Amino acid sequence: MKSDSRRQGVMDFLMEAGTASVEDLAARFGVSKMTVHRDLDELEESGFLRKVRGGASIQPSGLFESDFRYRQKQAVGEKQRLAAAAVAMIEPGQTVIIDDGSTAGGIAADLADLRPLTVISNNLAVIQDLAGVGGITLIALGGQYSKKFHGFFGLLAEETLKSLRADVAFLSSSAIHGSSAFHQDQEVVQTKRLMMAAAGRKYLLVDHGKFGRTALHFLTDLTAFDAVFTGSELGQPVRDELEATGVSLTIVDGKE
């Protein structure tokens, strides 16, 4: 197995297990402990995991939870419900912005019935899903690719967003503390803010597990969104507190 494929395999395994010992990884991938240590050193340097005594871990930390592969596997059912509900905010012929978030990115799978549409995104998963789809005019934001966030960021993406205007934007955030949204990466925050500025209507899609958490950088107050979509798993006390501050909550029921 080539080193890149093996390291991807290590990350995939850690996404499921949370932690693993060097011995287990060496046996799993049929390599020496020395090779495993080299793999873990490189992955740690890239910010994907942290080495611990005798192995590696990706929990618990907002830094490691920000990895796109980790986020894709969290609250999958709830995220699908949120994306399906949010699509009702779109009408054929509109221009839609979708950010790098795994929750907002889930909207792409539900856009076929709303064609024609123009979709603007820096989310590589969205770009790959919609590339070549009939009736979808796709504007892929350029910039520097981030493996961690599986999207494009930086000056090129930011300058492009400043020159565009959309009907609606769908965003995600990694943490909701009080009535504010936060994110751990300042460059991602800047891109999300420009997406909000470029759109007439703005919606935030966050699963219930994001509430009561915080991250390093303030993104925006939740009142900046026309609606915040979340699952019915969110406790009633939290709902009441948010609505008391003027946040427009859209609760998506999980019942069939």
TrEMBL record:
Q: Which Pfam families match?
A: DeoRC, HTH_DeoR
HTH deoR-type domain span? 3-58
Top-level taxon: Bacteria
PROSITE patterns found in the cross-reference section: HTH_DEOR_1, HTH_DEOR_2
A GO molecular function term, named singly, is: DNA binding
Which InterPro entries would you find in this protein's record? Carb_Metab_HTH_regulators, DeoR-like_C, DeoR_HTH, NagB/RpiA_transferase-like, Tscrpt_reg_HTH_DeoR_CS, WH-like_DNA-bd_sf, WH_DNA-bd_sf
| The entry's keywords | DNA-binding, Repressor, Transcription, Transcription regulation
Query: Mind telling me which SUPFAM superfamilies this protein's record contains?
Result: NagB/RpiA/CoA transferase-like, Winged helix' DNA-binding domain
Ranges that cross the membrane: none
Kindly provide the name given to this protein in its UniProt entry. Answer: DeoR/GlpR family DNA-binding transcription regulator
Origin organism is Mesorhizobium abyssinicae
